[in-house]
Amino acid sequence: MSPAEIREEILDILADIAPDEDLGELKDEVPFREQLELDSMDFLDIVMELRKRHRVQIPEEDYHHLASMQSTVTYLEPKMKDIVRS
Amino acid sequence: MYDTIIIGAGMSGLAAGIRLAHFDRRVCILERHYTIGGLNSFYRMGGRDYDVGLHAVTNFSEKGARHGPLAKLLRQLRLRWDDFKLAPQLGSSIRFSDAELNFGNDIALLEAEIRKQFPGQIDNFRRLVASLLDYDDLDGDDPRFTRSSREVLAETISDPLLREMLLCPLMWYGNARERDMDFGQFCIMFRACYLEGFGRPLKGVRLILKHLVRKFRGLGGELKLRSGVSRIHVENGRAVGVVLDDGTELQARRILSSAGAIETMRLCDDITEVDAARAGQLSFIESVSILDCQPRELGFDRTIVFYNDSPEFHWERPENALCDTRTGVICSPNNYAYAPEEGELPDGVIRITTLANHDRWCELNEPQYRAAKLAQYDRAVEASVRFMPDFRSRVIDTDVFTPKTIRRFTWHDNGAVYGAPDKQLDGSTHLENVFLCGTDQGFVGIVGAIVSGISMANRYCLQDP
Q1: Among all residues of chain A, which has the CA nearest to that of B66?
Q2: Where are the domains positioned within chain B?
Q3: CA distance B15 to B449
Q4: B458 contacts in A (CB within 8 Å)?
Q5: What pLDDT digit, counting tens, does each position of B319-372 carry?
Q6: B80·A20 Cβ contact <8 A
Q7: Domain B2-85+204-278+419-461's class?
Q8: What domains lie within chain A, and their CATH numbers?
Q9: A36 to chain B: nearest residue by CA?
Q10: What ipTM did this prediction achieve?
Q11: In chain A, what's the furthest Cα-to-Cα distance?
Q12: Interchain CB distance below 8 Å, B74 and A36
């Protein structure tokens, strides 16, 4: 997956977690916590969705990389570059 | 072999099931009754729909809100706000013999009422609100959690009448302990009722249940009705599966039970005796009246009235009578601000809940039981019309459900509506792979029960890959 595809995939996960949110306005550099008020349970769900959908394993000490869209995509790029988006 | 077997298809069991099925666990929910919902269920009689349990969904939040338990559970279950479609209450009241406080979904109303009725107490009330435990502190570790609410209140609010009035709705809507309340439970209920407030879907609890069960089944979860668990089979300190009432054996890696703490222990075949004295004692009857008009046409626009006929609020099982009508809850499901495009309920409905003694109801033979339902309906209505317009000439149909009904829907000992007084907040049991969810884990109400199922599933059943 390219960084743009990874971003799409994260948006898809966020839309699944928070179906009432308008994600069109999401700013990539601002933390999810501030924009969407996601809590630790929601971050755990992003991790679990990535594992469920793409078998991407994220160790607990790396969770902080998932703070914003920008940092998430940067962190996931090497882990997901060989995955083909279905 | 299931990853998890869930006992009970109430709100907590269904919510836990959705979490597990969503993350591809093999999960089966077993329900003894022929319908889902547990305490919050529904039935149909004489062409009309009735709710059991639900007067109001507490923890109301508006569409788009990101804070609070309702928003959290919607995200966790991947549901939309519109799936529950909660219409906000019109307004509720605490009515004692000589005093009244109105409240709604904005705490400012209750503050204004206290300033008006108890001018000397408004600062004390604000201090109390500021000292409430937050939801994040409610894992039971905070030493204040198990303190007596009456003690904490006496330290903050010096007028005993105001203390009793504030406690009345919170005990009615979620206190399993007689007479007093754990401060942690008080904080949960204070937030749920006064800071967040009440709502209801026009179609009642069946709408919420329909969405939960559809979601669960859509994710591949199995739900078996009329499948009571008669035994949890234990080998070497671990549960290995369950035996159903009809003898069927099912195996599972772990079991999540909403049957109640004592009720679950009794199912385990390594336990020979349980301390039944730890079961809850508080049960209710509910007297339902169908009216030929909307309650508002009689001048009654309250969503819920919590009444009490003396300055002191008695929260205890009636020892020497079937029921105690000194205090009660009057609820009109008509009095919510339903969206205009949704319309209104077809009939006027007044539901009155009063305290009842489960054992005494169970001692009655069938003719006595039927006669008692009629007599206790009359007593409950008579008691409640002291606190609302007399609606008796407008009644076209009635029904009563009793502690026996509640027992049938919940299977709780004593028909205890809110389960056992001592909650097991971490959900653990004497077995390493059996966990509790629902009422006896600690959270009550529809939102509380759903949050319980979610958090226990996350903590104990989703950890392995």
Answers
A1: A37
A2: 2-85+204-278+419-461, 106-193, 281-410
A3: 8
A4: 41, 44
A5: 999 999 999 999 999 999 999 999 999 999 999 999 999 999 999 999 999 999
A6: yes
A7: alpha beta
A8: 3-78 (1.10.1200.10)
A9: B66
A10: 0.89
A11: 32
A12: no
